[in-house]
Structure formats: C-alpha cells, structure tokens
Amino acid sequence: MKQAANKTIREEVFELDFDLKAETFVSYLDDCQTSIDIRLDDFFKRRFSKDITEIKESLQKEGMLDVNLSRRSFYNIFPERFFHSTYASTSFVPTMVADYNSRVVEEEHARKFFKPLETEFFLQRVAVEKQEDHTFKSMGGPELVHFLMDLWNIDRNIPKRMAAKILKTMPFIYKIAGDLPLLKVILENIIEEQLTITHDFASLSANTSDDPWQLGVNMATAGGGKTFLPKYVFTIANIRKPEEIQEYLPGGKIESVVRFFLEHTLPVECDFEINFTVTKPKRAFVMSEAVYAGRLGISATI
C-alpha cells in the first residue's frame, strides 16, 4: 500500500507542466506523514531539468523516499582544493584510476560531512514555505481582512467576501497586470458575474469647438475628439440580481469592486468604463396586442 502511494506521488510530480519547488513538495509530504531524505546531487542537471530530478525508494531505510534535487551543495560551492589533494599528471593508467577512485571517496566523505547542515537549511526553507502558505490561507479570516483593507485603503463598502478574494490576488498583481484574459477570469471569480471586454480609444477631456486650427487639440485628431490612448469597456453581462441594480451603479458595491481591481491591474495610460446589462424579460406568445387581430385556425394572421 505504501509503495503504491509513493508511486502515485512520483507520477503526480513528474506529470506537472511546471517546475515544482522542492520546499512546496516537502511541505505537502509532511502533511501526509511521509519520511524523506534530501540529496543535492544533481546540480549539473539544473540547466535542462526541473528542481526535483528523481524520487525513489530508499535502499537504506524502509518507507523513506530519496528526493534528488538539482541544487548546489556545499561541495559545489567551495573550491575543489578544499576537499581533494593535488595530484601530479601522469601517463600511467593504473595511477590515474587510483587517483580517480580516491577523489570519488573524498567527494563522498565531503558530502556526508555537509549533509546535516544542508538538510537543516532546507528544513528552514520548508518552514518558511509552510508559514507563507498558512498566511495565504488565513487571508480569508475576518481580522486579517480588516487589517489588510486598511493597509491597502480598500473601500469599506466593498463586501468582505469579495475583499478577501481581492487580497488573495495581491501577491500576484504583477502577473495579472496587463494580461486581459487572466484579469477577466479573476475578476469574474471575484464578483461572480460574466464579463465582456471591448477595446476602444479614450476621448479628449477638453471640449473641442468647431473653430479650425486648435493647436494640440484638434489639429492632430482632425477634430474627432479621439486619442490614441487605449480604453477598455468592461460590461457585466446579464447581472444575476437585477433587484439589487443599485449595487451596479456608480458608487455601488459591485462597481466599487471592479473599479478598485482595475485601478491596480490596468496600465496607467489606459482608460476604462464599467457598464452592465440586464436580462430581457421573458414574454408569453402573443398573436397581437389588439383583440381579434390574430386568428388561429386554418390560417394565422399576426
């Protein structure tokens, strides 16, 4: 049963499409009560491999996993002269073989010497990973939400449930900013509505008159009032709660959420507009509004 579980762990790790950080992986295994042994043996594979290069059953202790990482150990950091003696060049094969075997033994002893220290440093990073994960999960707590709302100067009218979702995206704002497809998905998850985004160009803030040759106003734009600065129109399609339509109007809770999120994710040179649509009411089949105008029989007149 244990071997089957370890096989499943290996399959899940190496089938991922991204480079899983070893600290994240080990923190997950700690929750599953799985014993592991970290080995920093594959540093030269780092340029073409992931952080975790191999997961296998330990031959020394039953139920333990050996996890090989493509990271530098102390043996790779310190100069080679710290661990190996200097050998004179020779053309005798037996001497070269003996020198090579001697260096293998010296390397093994050096790695064993530094292994407890390397393991301790790694476990410290695992502890930091766990603390970050705990902090990230606790962002939905009411006390932390209140504190972070004051820290980020978030409008108190924003619902706490939506504010908690916004706060969870704050560490990843640098990835979301400017990425419209990703921004759309996250914003839809926050407000639990469907969005459509259309591209337009911002208008001039100054009023243009019909007088010709207004330098810097309508000479370059031919008096059209449009600029080359981008403008995005965010439309909440068919709002779910039309009875609470005031929340979608300027100053409402939903409008405040969308505006706050866009102000922190759209480029500063972009303008945006927030609209919404309401589902059209369903109507029964009516032949005509006038009496006897529609007759259903051999023929129908509408």
Characterise the protein shown here:
With 302 residues, the protein is an alpha/beta fold. The protein folds into two domains: 2-135, no CATH class; 179-276, no CATH class. The chain is 40% helix and 15% strand. The chain is built from nine helices and six strands; from the N terminus they run H-H-E-E-E-H-H-H-H-H-H-E-E-H-E. It has helices at 2-14, 22-31, 74-77, 93-137, 142-151, 160-169, 173-176, 180-191, 253-265, and strands spanning 35-39, 52-57, 64-69, 194-203, 226-237, 271-276. It has a three-stranded mixed β-sheet. The protein has a three-stranded mixed β-sheet with strand order 4-5-6, with helices on one face. Helix 9 (253-265) links the parallel strand 5 (226-237) and strand 6 (271-276). Helix 8 (180-191) packs antiparallel against helix 9 (253-265). The model has no long low-confidence stretch (mean pLDDT 78).
Topology:
Layout: H1 2-14, H2 22-31, E1 35-39, E2 52-57, E3 64-69, H3 74-77, H4 93-137, H5 142-151, H6 160-169, H7 173-176, H8 180-191, E4 194-203, E5 226-237, H9 253-265, E6 271-276
Parallel strand pairs: 1-3, 5-6
Antiparallel strand pairs: 2-3, 4-5
Helix pairs in contact: 2-4, 5-6, 6-8, 8-9
For the record, give the distance between the C-alpha atoms at the N and C termini, rounded to a whole number: 73 Å
Order of helices and strands: HHEEEHHHHHHEEHE
Shape: elongated
Give the class from helix and strand content and strand pairing: alpha/beta
How much helical structure, as a percent, in the residues?
40-55%
What does the radius of gyration come to?
Answer: 33 Å
Number of individual domains: 2
| Number of H/I helices | 9
**How many β strands by DSSP?**
6
pLDDT < 50 runs, ≥5 residues: none
* Beta fraction: 5-15%
The whole-number mean of residue pLDDT values reads: 78
Assembly state (oligomeric): single chain
Largest beta sheet: what is the strand line-up?
1-3-2
Largest sheet: 3 strands, mixed
